[in-house]
Amino acid sequence: MTHRIVVLGAGYAGASAAGRLARRLHPDHTEITVVNAAPEFVERVRLHQLATGQHLTRRTLRDIFAGSGVRVRVARVTGVDVERRTVALDADEIGYDTLVYALGSTAADQGVPGVAEHAHDVAGSASALRLRERLADLDAGGTVLIVGGGLTGLEAATEIAEARPDLDVAIASRGGLGDWLDAGAQQHLAEVFDRLGIAVHAHTDVARVEATGVVTGDGRRIPAEVTVWSAGFAVHPIAAATTLTVAPSGQIVVDATMRSVSHPDVYAIGDAALAEGPGGKPLRMACASGVPMAWQAADAIAARLTGRPVPKVLLRYFNQCVSLGRRDGLIQFVTADDRTKAFHVRGRLAARYKELVCRGAAWLVSHPTLLLPTRRRRIDALAADGTARPSTSGV
């Protein structure tokens, strides 16, 4: 018998977890399978670049996991039965003994009418490519409105404005522009937006999206030939349809080891999980959360399967990286629980730092067999149902 570990999703979190598990566990009694709807790893943090016509490096999952022992299934997940321990795919189903749920998130319409019909987003590669085609069709003087003033909105607005200076770009934000940043960073952000000619509609709620723009909560109309929706993310509804304990957001509630609080054979990581961070605050949806969550889950799974102490690592934040086009950026330093410090880096140095972070994250995912530790521990015995009986003999 073999202990079957199934990882759902191969974004930053899922791919990182699969690679780390392959380095931790000996393949004699373990089988690791990654299920992903697309055959390639998507650099989600670069999708605003893809939308403006830039080339992104192509990385197929089969190439990434070649030689690691990780199996790749290109299929869409349609459901999970946590009682039968099976995952329904678009053509068949697959069984598991340990499940790592990392299906991520997609753009959230926040209940605003017209978003699905009229807005674009950069939450996935397909939607980013659709936006790319739409932007390419715009003539000089065309109008683009980004809705949402978070990290995604700031990056999308500046990337589009820099790549297409012939367009009239605007952003609508529920709060002030970058109002979570320190004062100096806010000033730099305002200067960048002014330099790029981006109109700012601060403290603006969008009540409806139409084909020709948006209607605000106070009845004003902001015209736009293209509306880009970046007002938050929502998880896929699959987990909420199971008997797993989920939060009102649909995220799977997990403990400090990323293990489901209701089903010990299920782990959840990345945007799909509600995990407590420093100060009791939930970890935010971000690559900066997803990768450490993946490492935490993989190490806990390996420890429990091989009878070793479960590592206790406090997940924390250090900074928030914002690209403002290709030649400018902001690095806002934060406390462990993600509160803004009065210190930041800006300009070209920040842009280079952000680029190094993006490249580093992609490199870590793309080289699962080159990283330490590589000591693979065995599971000596398996129960009749394939569950592990911890090893007592070392490696």
UniProtKB/TrEMBL annotation:
Q: Name one GO biological process term.
A: aerobic electron transport chain
User: GO MF annotations for this entry?
Assistant: NAD(P)H dehydrogenase (quinone) activity
Q: Name one Pfam family in it.
A: Pyr_redox_2
Taxonomic placement: Bacteria, Bacillati, Actinomycetota, Actinomycetes, Micromonosporales
Q: Which UniProt keywords apply?
A: FAD, Flavoprotein, Oxidoreductase
Where the record annotates domain FAD/NAD(P)-binding, the positions are 4-298
State the needed cofactors, names only: FAD
Q: What is this protein called?
A: Oxidoreductase
To which protein family does this belong?
Belongs to the NADH dehydrogenase family.
